[in-house]
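4.2 Preliminary Data

To establish feasibility before requesting continued support, the project team ran the inverse folding procedure on a target of 435 residues. The structure was first converted into the token representation described in Section 3, and no sequence information of any kind was made available to the design step. The complete token record follows.
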């Protein structure tokens, strides 16, 4: 009898039952209150640290990790859709909550009370600062390292520290690591040292490389020496239409949302899916899935409001802002910029002085807002750009921005917490991150 009881309590079905019930109850209560939160995941993490590795470790195709400074949420979404187009059941953290507790919160919405997850593979976006701790307990089978840029320096410090955090992910990966060939820090001998997995890369043709500068190029510094990687998925051209090559063949690429940086994210998604699927990879399924994928939460999302189209563009560091300005500026869009300095944004906003805003001279900057609106207004002044209105309160700024008719799209460049506030106002009742 004692032996039977011991076997039962050690089985996944029984030993995680109480934590799962508690977590599911907390998640349901928050959803009834129309609040998205990682709190249920935090609760379960505290009382049952083994739940996450036990469930993810049981998946037949293992775990795919997507990490890097910019583009994680969009690229994760693209990877998920390509894999699903190959009839693979995928679990992911689609809201972009990329800590272990956020992943657990997403997991609680999909597992049964017995702890069963109806999935073949997990595709997970990971925050750089928490990725190392995650891969220690859940070693990924495949990882995609997108880029490394200066971002939230009050959290991550200098770029070499961020590179080391991403290096931990690569070292922990068992089967395949895909790195950005345009970022010398990610395919240097130092970064690839101790990496036992097969290494491949995504890239862009020599004619396009200037569109995707690395952090060192933004600061006119000399990057580390690169290491040659043979297997590559390459963006050959963007105009008149994107073209991607791999395995000696070229393929047209269509996306339902814009941005040159999103085109490169799609190439990255193709590269990791090729590694995951190997001989199962079907270009026809893959490119059709990419064409059908809609923008991720708040990242290039289009929201209809009072007969107008509001375009939300998340910008959280110099590289992301520069890429967004190059992709969208010049189309005459009426512009609002929202800059916050909350914990999730990074307290240090001095990075705005590394952004070249001159591209906005051709687009009317209607409003600047956020907790650091005054800093933003001053920064624009030094690039000879005058904002019509400075309104620190985001709700008030949004009202002013929307009330003025415009024949073109209205674009809002916003930092993370500003994006959440704007989206809650424009789409009330829609759960946000970590839903």
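Position-by-position output of the design step:
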């Amino acid at each position: 009898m004692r032996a039977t009881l011991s076997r039962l309590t050690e089985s996944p079905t029984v030993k995680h039952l109480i934590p799962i019930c508690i977590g599911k109850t907390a998640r349901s209560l928050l959803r009834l209150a129309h609040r998205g939160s990682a709190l249920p995941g935090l609760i379960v993490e505290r009382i049952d640290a083994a739940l996450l590795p036990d469930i993810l470790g049981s998946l037949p195709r293992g775990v795919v990790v997507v990490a890097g400074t910019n583009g994680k949420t969009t690229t994760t979404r693209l990877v998920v859709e390509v894999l699903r187009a190959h009839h693979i059941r995928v679990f992911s953290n689609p809201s972009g909550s990329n800590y272990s507790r956020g992943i657990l919160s997403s997991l609680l919405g999909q597992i049964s009370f017995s702890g069963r997850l109806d999935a073949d593979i997990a595709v997970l976006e990971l925050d750089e600062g928490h990725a190392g701790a995650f891969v220690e307990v859940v070693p990924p089978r495949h990882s995609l390292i997108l880029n490394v840029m200066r971002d939230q320096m009050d959290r991550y410090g200098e770029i070499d520290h961020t590179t080391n955090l991403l290096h931990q992910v690569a070292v922990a990966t068992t089967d395949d690591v895909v790195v950005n060939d345009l970022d010398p820090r990610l395919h240097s001998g130092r970064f690839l040292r101790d990496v036992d997995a097969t290494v491949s890369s995504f890239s862009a043709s020599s004619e396009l490389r200037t569109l995707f500068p690395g952090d060192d190029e933004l600061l006119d510094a000399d990057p580390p020496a690169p290491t040659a990687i043979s297997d590559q998925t390459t963006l050959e051209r963007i105009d008149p239409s994107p073209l991607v090559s791999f395995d000696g063949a070229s393929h047209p690429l269509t996306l339902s949302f814009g941005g040159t940086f999103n085109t490169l994210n799609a190439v990255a998604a193709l590269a990791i899916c090729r590694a995951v699927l190997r001989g199962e990879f079907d270009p026809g399924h893959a490119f059709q899935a990419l064409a059908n994928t809609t923008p991720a939460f708040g990242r290039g999302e289009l929201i209809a409001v009072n007969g107008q189209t509001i375009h939300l563009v998340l910008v959280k560091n110099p590289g992301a802002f520069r890429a967004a300005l190059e992709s969208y500026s010049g189309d005459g869009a009426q512009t609002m910029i929202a800059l916050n300095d909350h914990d999730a944004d990074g307290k240090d906003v001095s990075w705005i002085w590394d952004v070249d805003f001159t591209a906005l001279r051709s687009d009317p900057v209607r409003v600047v807002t956020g907790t650091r609106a005054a800093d933003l207004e001053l920064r624009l002044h030094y690039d000879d750009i005058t904002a019509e209105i400075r309104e620190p309160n985001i709700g008030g700024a949004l009202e002013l921005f929307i009330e003025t008719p415009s024949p073109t799209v209205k674009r809002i460049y916003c930092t993370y917490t500003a994006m959440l506030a704007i989206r809650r106002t424009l789409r009330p009742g829609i759960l946000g991150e970590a839903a």
